[in-house]
Amino acid sequence: MNSLLDVKKLKVGFEGAKPVNVISEVSFSIQKGENLALVGESGCGKSIIAHAILRLLAPEARIEGSILFKGRELLKLSEKEMAKLRGNELAIIFQNASHALNPVYSIGRQLAEPLRIHQKSGKTDATKKVLKALAQLGFFSPEKYLKFYPSWGSGGMNQRFLIASSTILEPELLIADEPSKGLDPARIKEVERELWVLGKEAKSSLLLISHDLGFVRRLADKIAVLYSGEIVELAKTSVFFKQPRHPYSQGLLGSLPENGFVPIPGLAPALCESPSGCRFHPRCPFQKEKCLREHPELKARDGRAVRCFLWA
Amino acid sequence: MGLKIEKLSKRYGKGLFSRETELFRDVSFKLEAGKTFGLTGPSGTGKSTLGKIIVGLEKPSQGDVFYKGSSIFELRGSEKKVFRRKVQMMFQDPLDAFNPRKKIERSLLDILSLLKIPGSKGPDKIRLMLKTVGLNEEVLLRFPAQLSGGQLQRLALGRILLLEPAFIILDEPTSALDVSVQAQILQLLKKVQAREKLGYLLISHDEAVVRFMADYCGKLEHGSLSLA
């Protein structure tokens, strides 16, 4: 079966006075209707992967490998073809909603924009669809919000406006970059329900980027744990939370409130200065001689993949 | 001797075009040395405003805050200076808490010069503080934007510790941080509290964090505080 999105050996680096490699050989795939979560501490490269898929990285970025979306190689498409895809079949909910919305356009206009550009909808038709989308996101009397500006709304409201604008064309793949960041628990519940409904009704697939493990647990079918620019564990959500295999995954789960806030010692390395050997070894409680020298491969077994010598 | 918060109320507005709105009324509780009071409640109920009133950054509409038996709004001169030093506030976003144009070392030395600590003793004090909060000395040469959220939040705590406070108002100290970093900061706060006998007011909408940290707690909702 062909996957909806197939990322193979993705490498991202940035040119400059001192070129750096930030993402090394990341591979994963998303089937139709499946939700995959990319988790990891901030600065481990989650958003870079999302932006690489949409080809939104700065011009000095060097991307290698392959990103197949419905069998088409995204890295070889022209900018014009890419623009047709973006927002239409492939959409993103950016981090920090209040900054991602345009402050000088009304919500009604911003939400109608994808319809008018991609579907060439007329004004009345677009407005009708915008109203429907707003109502779906739990806004009572949506007409009120057509002339609303982002600065008038709270963080939670803006997040929902942004979700509405990203999902209005029912994209086949939606990338959600930290959709729960900075929201209070009640708002997180709303966002979660919205994303869930979208998956069920519109049959959209979701690439969820988050460090909120509780949120991820309820939404994702599969989890990929990212550490210092590489995947260290890939497993089904249910299996992962029951039995995390990589020491880093175990540490992440240990930091959760229900497990008593036991932190991982040390700090996450910057992407441009990854340690030699296994990248997690300076913080790993089980490190061995071998971990200091050799870099472990991602080994797949029993439907999961782990990058650790201890598991091999 | 603790901090006593008595019947605080805060109202806003009452301009030409706006009606007066009441944020909260009759909020009373006590902060004690070595203990943590956890304050929860939904966004927008005035948790942060309450914190700011307690450190003297805002004035209440009614009520009073007593530090060592005297009202903090009537303190003058050297007494007020002592109070400002002893009751500190740590903010949600550590990046906003540091001057972006100064290197960390400069920011910290500024604090010490305010305390009139001689320049020769400054570096030692800073080194000791960095050890307490678990940071490397190289952070001193960086600008705030070059550090991670966790590092900055450690520094924010360290900067407060340089002042040798008695009470710290922690306003959502971990909500901008990742789960793993959150765990580190919470453990650090507990460690420092046990050593220095600090009193904390922990403001957070994350009830799990409050349960973990607090000795006693209250919920600010619909304008009033219910103690649990």
Written overview of the protein:
The complex is a heterodimer of chains A (about 300) and B (about 230). Chain A has about 300 residues and is α/β, with parallel strands linked by helices. In chain A, about 30% of the residues lie in helices and about 25% in strands. Chain A is built from eleven helices and twelve strands. In chain A, the strands form two sheets. In chain A, strands 6-7-8-3-9-10-12-11 form an eight-stranded mixed β-sheet, sandwiched between helices. In chain A, helix 4 runs parallel beside helix 6 (about 155-165) and helix 6 (about 155-165) runs parallel beside helix 7. Chain A starts with a strand and ends in a 6-residue tail after the last strand. Chain B has about 230 residues and is of the alpha/beta class. Chain B is about 35% helix and about 25% strand. Chain B contains seven helices and ten strands. Chain B has a six-stranded mixed β-sheet, sandwiched between helices. In chain B, strands 2-1-4-5 form a four-stranded antiparallel β-sheet, with helices on one face. The mean pLDDT of chain B is about 90. At the A-B interface, helix 10 of A face helix 5, helix 6 and helix 7 of B.
Q: Which helices and strands appear, and what pairs or packs with what?
A:
The complex is a heterodimer of chains A (312) and B (228).
Chain A: E1 5-14, E2 20-30, E3 35-39, H1 46-53, E4 61-69, E5 72-73, H2 79-85, E6 90-93, H3 97-100, H4 107-118, H5 123-136, H6 155-167, E7 173-177, H7 185-201, E8 205-210, H8 213-219, E9 222-227, E10 230-236, H9 237-242, H10 247-254, H11 289-293, E11 299-301, E12 304-306
Parallel strand pairs in A: 3-8, 3-9, 6-7, 7-8
Antiparallel strand pairs in A: 1-2, 1-4, 4-5, 9-10, 10-12, 11-12
Helix pairs in contact in A: 4-5, 4-6, 6-7
Chain B: E1 3-12, E2 21-31, E3 36-40, H1 47-54, E4 62-67, E5 70-71, H2 77-86, E6 87-90, H3 104-114, H4 122-133, H5 149-162, E7 167-171, H6 179-196, E8 199-203, H7 207-213, E9 216-221, E10 224-227
Parallel strand pairs in B: 3-8, 3-9, 6-7, 7-8
Antiparallel strand pairs in B: 1-2, 1-4, 4-5, 9-10
